[in-house]
Input
Amino acid sequence: MAANARSLRGLPIAAYLALLVALALAAAFIAVMAVVLWLPPRPPDVMRADMVSEHFKVGYEHMRAVGRPIDDHGMTWRVQAEAPHQRHLPQMHPTQHMLAGELDLQPNQVRIAAAQIQRSDVFVFRVRDAHEAARDARREVERLRREGRRGQVVVRGGGEPEIHVDADGAVIEQGFEIRVPEPLPEPGAAPVPRRRHAVSVAPSPPSPPAAPAPRAAVFAPAPPGTVLISGFEIGAQLPDGRWLVMRQGRNWAELSWIGRATVIIGGTLLILSLLAVWFARRLTRPIRNFSDAVQAVGVDPQSEPVREEGPRELRGAARAVNTMQARLRALIADRTKTLAAVAHDMRTPLMRLRLTAENAPPEQRDKMAREIEEVEALVASFIAFARDDPAEEARVRLDLSALLHSIADDHAEAGRNVSFTSDERVIITGQSLGLKRLFSNLVDNALKYGASARIKLRREENAVIVDVEDDGPGIPSDQRESVFEPFVRLNAEGTRGAGLGLAAARSIARAHGGDIVILDAEHGALLRVTLPS
Amino acid sequence: MALMADTPQPPHVLIVDDDSAIRDGLVDVFTRAGFSASAAADVAAMERQLAAKGADLIVLDLMMPGEDGLSACKRLSGKGRPPIIMLSALGDDADRIVGLEIGADDYLAKPCNPRELVARARAVLRRARESEGAVAPGESVRFAGFRLDIPRRELVDPDDVVIPLSAGEFRLLRAFVERPQRVLSREQLLDFAFDNDADVFDRAVDVQVSRLRKKLERPGSIEIIRTVRGEGYLFAVRPMA
Output
């Protein structure tokens, strides 16, 4: 018991599983922590109503100037014949009126709808710095150039500075230079002249001090009375009676946030799954080794003992198998020893008798020799049956027709009537000694009950069929199964043998995946052996 | 006895068996057959006798108290020992193969016909005398892609397919393999490959040779056993151990 406790190391499977679960939880925790710590807060998809209305104004002017909706990836723009549905939203009235005024429209020519409206004085807005403002101004000038127009661009950044860019070049202000490389030729049909073009969506802080533009982003509280909206739709009637509608698009900033969160969580999951695969292999490898080793023990009791490794349960099982294998080996050794002793103790007196018979007159000597041979045949069949172990002999590829030929020839050489006819070469996989014993037993049996044996071999699909026929009295149909049982003889009187030949033959055939059956024959017996090809 | 006439002194047979009745009986049988014979009760006594006067042939029992026959045979192998015939109470094919693989020149199961034992003793002695080309017992011989497994009495073809041989075919092929590239007459082959007392004729040699040829026949290969008209047969390839 002490030895058992000492060497049964290794964790129980439950511990491995608990460890795996703990690892998974830890990884999930780390992923969440990473998201919380490394990612900035998710940007809101609410917007300031005044800024949205400003933005719409830009789009509306663009539409009127160019005749098609502005290309804008934050919002979706379209032109439609019928007016958007009018909704009664009191909080939106100021915005609506203001927008109508700015666009020179009647208030009922402007429609504003929003899924959510709230007033908030607590939101803090990030304000673009001069860098960003200058970049935007440059882009705007470029865009105007592409469209073949000239104009002045004013970018209102986060307070100071305002960057003025005229159509021919850049005005350097606060150290930023925005340049339009060369003046454009005056277009023939100049569109509506525009003096100001606002691209800003960021608010102006209430009253920032006149200071150099900060390089970093700055934050500023929303002006009092700011209305925040989301899921909005703004429509305004165009001079031709159609309506221009702007709808809030996808929140791209949120998408990139989701993308980054996905990368963090996905990365953690990937690492975790790699870890899980490694862990699972580590846990199951001893189990696979164990199964292989147990199989080897099943085939060959002399094989290596099973290694005690892996989880504690498996070590216990391996130990049990090793104990069993040791006992099996001892049993086999015992059996081999017993059989050898039996063979020695029975054959030694037979040999003595045989030598004594040499001194007898020739007539009696031959008679004694025959009797001794008979007893010897009995002893041989007992021992062969008792030590029969179909798994012991190795399997080889074997020429079955040559095997049957050699059996027939050996009998023929001894003057017995055994024939084999086949011109075909049939190769099967099997035990050379085992198959020889199988067919020798059948032929011996045929010669015992009849005077001759005929062996026929033919090949069928997936099988090889060997018929052994004799010209004896045949086997009654009610005994065709029982003759395969050990120690069963057809008629005890006058026949020799222990009744083990057919039993041994069938067990060999079955160990090869085949069988032996007795079939109806015109006269005599017909035994059919089927072996897989 | 033609054999006895050739040798001035009769060959000496040493019989090793723990059963005294068998020892005495076998000494009797061999003496009557024209050998000189002595007996030992165990391996130690056998070694004393070998050291004292040697022997031309040992008939060795397998199961004996003390050191058994197999281990004695294994130990004696390889140092110019006399040929050994195992006489064993274990008579299975598997036992016979183990005995032959360990180096016994022949293997007989008890109870055997004493005259057959004497015949085998003569065959073993003759093979030992014609040491030229003789194949060590317990080994295999290769020729033309084939392998003749002496202990198992099997032929293995170039594709590793086992081709079982009948007793007659095996003896004939062994006789050919041990005397390669030499014309052998039908009488010689009868002498080598058939039991002396067997009632066989020259025709039987032809029948066995044709059977063997059929088993050695492979498409596109050379003729391994050639007919020499009016003289006999010739094993045309050189075997390797």
User: Anything to note?
Assistant: Confidence is low (pLDDT under 50) at residues 1-6, 157-161, 170-217 of chain A.
